[in-house]
Amino acid sequence: MTDAIRRRIYDYSAASLSGDDIPLAQYEGEVLVIVNTASKCGFTPQYAGLEGLYKQYIDRGVVILGFPCNQFGGQEPGTSAEIAQFCELNYGVSFPIFAKIDVNGPNAHPLYKFLKQEKPGILGVVGLSAIKWNFTKFLIDREGKVVGRYGSSTAPADLAAAIEKLL
Fold it and tell me: Domain residue spans in the chain?
């Protein structure tokens, strides 16, 4: 299936930190927050807020999906094992973290190409769709539609009202 034909987030898959291919179809019917992450960034403490959202809403059908990315200042240089250890030890992360990906450029993961197409970014201008920095968050409704895009400076807790509207 080509990217042009894909219309729902559930048509994509991504590698887990252990290398297993995880179809996003397993999250069908859930509200998703998809975020590109990094371990050595000024926004890294948002892991705590993301974990808080996850614990607050997991029983109501909300899942946080983290996608480490090293494209912004080399702030995610670690291996999959190092990323997993960092997230668990420093922030008690229990939400799914996937293998490191690119979110921009010619090697951008197809999921992120889709996300940026659906919510282009600044004022909705397609040419400005690139992810600007770590911890950009996308909110996905229960039908798999991308309903929100939030920049790095948006704290995870600030997504609570939008999440509530989708539950």
Answer: 9-166
What are the backbone angles phi and psi of residue 3, rounded to the nearest 5°? -60, -35
Query: How many C-alpha atoms does 150 have within 13 Å on its Cβ side?
Result: 21
Whole-Å CA distances, 11 to 24, 33, 48? 7, 16, 29
- In this prediction the pTM is 0.90
Q: Is 29 left (phi over 0), alpha (psi -120 to 50) or beta?
A: left
- Please list, in sequence order, all residues whose beta carbon lies within 8 angstroms of the beta carbon of residue 108, skipping any fewer than 6 positions away: 101, 102, 116
What is 9-166's CATH superfamily?
Glutaredoxin (3.40.30.10)
The residue length of the chain stands at 167
41 is catalytic: yes
Q: What is the pLDDT of residues 37-65, one digit of tens each?
A: 999 998 888 999 999 999 999 999 999 99
Which position among 24, 35, 38, 41 bears the catalytic label?
Answer: 41
Chain CA centroid to CA 84, Å = 16
> Hey, what amino acid is at 134?
N
How far, in Å, are 91, 137, 158, 163, 167 from residue 46 at the CA level?
9, 11, 11, 17, 23
CA distance 62 to 55: 9
